[in-house]
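Morning!

This is the sequence you dropped in the shared folder:
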Amino acid sequence: MFLGEYQHSLDNKGRITIPARFREELGETFIVTKGLDNCLFVYPLSEWKTVEQNLKSLPFTRGDVRAFVRFFFAGACECETDKQGRILVPASLREYAGIDKEVVIIGVGNRVEIWSEQLWREYAQNAGASYEEISEKLVELGI
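The structure's back. Tokens below.
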């Protein structure tokens, strides 16, 4: 399970250091793709296969399903860390997530998310303001 929040910087070659606590669970090779809320999702291969199967089971005759699947898979790339624990984040993914220098890497249970520090702070501030309301809705759903 991925937990915690870490701050890192993008180097001048477009590389980000993955926290050591996450590297072991991610494995040697993992998937980085466009996530929701303008962040990047990082999945270990085992979890990626589960996500892939779930998406394949959706009805491809629906336009919204096709659009999401295209967006999600087209943005995906296979990554592995170098000896210093860094990954090269493709320019298209950096652009999508608004990553130019400072990043926040968070554990979200079954995946890791990589955020532009600015977007993460804005998101956290907005979500934090409605945290109690969100938790009440989750309780209503039985979570």
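Headline: The chain has a mean pLDDT of 93.

More detail when I'm at my desk.
O.
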